């Protein structure tokens, strides 16, 4: 009798997991239809694509000085992984927007699938809440209409999170480093990731995983580090870069003179770090 009672909750839980998985596949199918409609009927937003292609062309022509890799929007400010990814995209699409949109549409569905896996694996929301992950107009726009490098960086980041959930720490850190090599803002996820590593791994394991992640950065940047190391490090990992107020989404309400000031960026960094410390203190360090 005791065995039957103990098996019942397990079977209910398994059925719940299966229902969420089925619902996730339905969401992926429906969102794939939406992506197709967006590509077919919504005009592409021209922002960075031409600049990306110009920067990639300079790299493919043999330029290794980051100071000379430029586009319509200015000099290249992303690490070497960006160049490798967009060189492959240029090769596949011929630099044309429409086939690139199809490629990014597939990437969007892949990214959504990884995110759904993360939430199902973590089991922190009800099944119906998974649909909320498909409703972001901004995410659809970034992937399909603007073709930003954020798309590849965040997909790799989410893949790293999924691997870490499965306790594949070393592979997760390598993928995380790959995400950083495409866009440096992924480093904002590093402090909580380090905390998780310290809680879930031995010190030797943490050191080994961090060494693997660092090695990825060295190998990807090697052609530039050997030729013009100062230019590469100063451009690709420029912590003092000033962003353009016109393209801001979250801080449109901030006056431009405040937005471009070092004091504002410094305050944002301090707030970010303080919130991480508070979160670590009250959520993880118990």
UniProtKB/TrEMBL annotation:
**Which Pfam families does the entry mention?**
ALG3 (PF05208)
Its Gene Ontology molecular function terms? Answer: dol-P-Man:Man(5)GlcNAc(2)-PP-Dol alpha-1,3-mannosyltransferase activity
**Mode of membrane association:** Multi-pass membrane protein
Protein EC: 2.4.1.258
Query: Where would you find the membrane-spanning parts of this chain?
Result: 21-44, 102-122, 143-165, 171-198, 210-231, 263-282
Q: What class of enzyme is it?
A: transferase
- Just give the chief location class: endoplasmic reticulum
From the Swiss-Prot or TrEMBL record, state where the protein is found: Endoplasmic reticulum membrane
UniProt pathway: Protein modification; protein glycosylation
- Keywords for this entry? Endoplasmic reticulum, Glycosyltransferase, Membrane, Transferase, Transmembrane, Transmembrane helix
Extract the InterPro entries matched here: Glycosyltransferase_ALG3 (IPR007873)
UniProt catalytic activity = an alpha-D-Man-(1->2)-alpha-D-Man-(1->2)-alpha-D-Man-(1->3)-[alpha-D-Man-(1->6)]-beta-D-Man-(1->4)-beta-D-GlcNAc-(1->4)-alpha-D-GlcNAc-diphospho-di-trans,poly-cis-dolichol + a di-trans,poly-cis-dolichyl beta-D-mannosyl phosphate = an alpha-D-Man-(1->2)-alpha-D-Man-(1->2)-alpha-D-Man-(1->3)-[alpha-D-Man-(1->3)-alpha-D-Man-(1->6)]-beta-D-Man-(1->4)-beta-D-GlcNAc-(1->4)-alpha-D-GlcNAc-diphospho-di-trans,poly-cis-dolichol + a di-trans,poly-cis-dolichyl phosphate + H(+)
> Which GO terms of the cellular component aspect does the record hold?
endoplasmic reticulum membrane
Question: What is the designated name of this protein?
Answer: dolichyl-P-Man:Man5GlcNAc2-PP-dolichol alpha-1,3-mannosyltransferase
């Amino acid at each position: 009798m005791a065995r039957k009672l103990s098996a019942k909750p397990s079977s209910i839980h398994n059925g719940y997991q299966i229902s969420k998985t089925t619902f996730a596949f339905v969401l992926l199918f429906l969102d794939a239809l939406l992506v197709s409609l967006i590509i077919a009927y919504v005009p592409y937003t021209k922002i960075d694509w031409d600049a990306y292609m110009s920067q990639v062309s300079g790299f493919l022509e043999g330029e290794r000085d980051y100071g000379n890799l430029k586009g319509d929007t200015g000099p290249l400010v992303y690490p070497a992984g960006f160049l490798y990814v967009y060189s492959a995209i240029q090769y596949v699409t011929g630099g044309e927007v429409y086939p690139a949109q199809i490629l990014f549409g597939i990437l969007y569905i892949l990214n959504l699938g990884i995110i759904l896996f993360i939430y199902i694996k973590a089991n922190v929301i009800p099944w119906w809440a998974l649909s909320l992950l498909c409703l972001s107009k901004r995410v659809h726009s970034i992937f399909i209409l603007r073709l930003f490098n954020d798309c590849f960086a965040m997909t790799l980041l989410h893949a790293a999170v999924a691997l870490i959930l499965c306790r594949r720490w070393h592979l997760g850190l390598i993928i995380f480093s790959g995400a950083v090599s495409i866009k440096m803002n992924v480093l904002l996820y590093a402090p909580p990731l380090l905390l998780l590593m310290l809680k879930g791994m031995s010190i030797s394991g943490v050191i080994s995983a961090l060494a693997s992640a660092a090695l990825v950065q060295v190998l990807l940047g090697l052609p530039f580090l050997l030729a013009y190391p100062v230019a590469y490090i100063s451009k690709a990992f420029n912590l003092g870069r000033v962003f353009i107020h016109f393209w801001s989404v979250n801080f449109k309400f901030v006056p431009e003179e405040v937005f471009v000031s070092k004091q504002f960026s410094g305050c944002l960094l301090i707030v970010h770090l303080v919130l991480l410390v508070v979160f670590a203190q009250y959520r993880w360090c118990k």
